[in-house]
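Colleagues,

Please find the record for the three-part complex below.
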Amino acid sequence: MSGTARLLLEWFRTRQRDVPGRNESDPYRVWVAEVMAQQTRISTVIPYYESFLERFPDVETLAASSLDDVLKAWEGLGYYGRARNLHRAAGEVRERYGGRLPEDADALRSLPGIGAYTAGAIASIAFGKPEPAVDGNVRRVLSRLYDLENPTPGCLDALSRDLIAEAGGAAGPLNQALMDLGSSVCTARAPDCDECPIARHCLALQSGTVALRPVRRRRPPLPHQDIAAALVWRGPQLLIARRPEDGLLGGLWEFPGGKVETGETPAEAARREVLEELGIEVEIVGEVAEVQHAYSHFRITLHLFHARWIEGDPAISESRAGSPRWVLPGELARYAFPAANQAVIRRLVGGEERAPESPGPA
DNA sequence: AACTCGGGGCA
DNA sequence: TGCCCAGAGTT
């Protein structure tokens, strides 16, 4: 034994970190934790993990639930395709595998939302299979350990398998040790090599290239867009619509609106979009809020307006935005909305933001 | 291989 | 502000 694997396992054994999906025996719980953790910090995942499992304690419950309910539990966590895939995969697990996750990594890999990393993580952690699980942390740790500039997935896979073999096949603990090391010691910005249990084996540390591993690309500046949307009031009710399931924020609910075109004001854009998308005429009667929000690849200013319904029935119009419906402000809490809307939603649910000129509660 | 897809935390 | 994060799916 080279010692690297043994040092990793010893270091990991002394760690007691509260990480979702670890120290779990239920493969379903491991699965949910790993999907939630995709591109998401663990501290962000923790509250979602507990409440999600309380609401969907097993595959059967998840498969039998509506996508709307699953998205509501996912609201604010981002990458909503994960929730859609998880829901779809639960159905497949129920149909094909009798409600139990398959133990084989390739079978896991074929389920929606389970890629190479997640398949390896579930197989190794939940089922004890000698499979690699290379996430961003492991990629960084191995890149530094072997001083590799830009290793391919296949290369990292092979290196992981070697370490797993050195660990006597204990892939679960070894994979978790590599991930844990990457997230707490061998970090991207400020690696703490003094505290690293395998520093003596680290080729990048010997070469002085730790800060250069792995290489990262520079990103172009984020473009900006103005978005206008309307709180369309019809008496005490307001109008919401469900976004298409494909694409950005797929399946979430929103207030109707769209991009502000050049040469028009946000208020004009809000009125135009409501007419184009839902075929209803409204009059803009006031401004609600102006929200700044950043997505991964662009940023927006969301202009929200109060609007008064004039004519048109969204239920029978040829709408591109599916399933428009009228709801009371207090009912908004049932629907999953994008994070950019949350502050306004809270005010509406709490009754602080109300329809202008409305008589108010009797 | 390049793009899309959220949101939050941190220097 | 830019960068990163226990990645996957699509083209």
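The mean pLDDT of chain A is 92.

Comments are welcome before we finalize the supplementary table.
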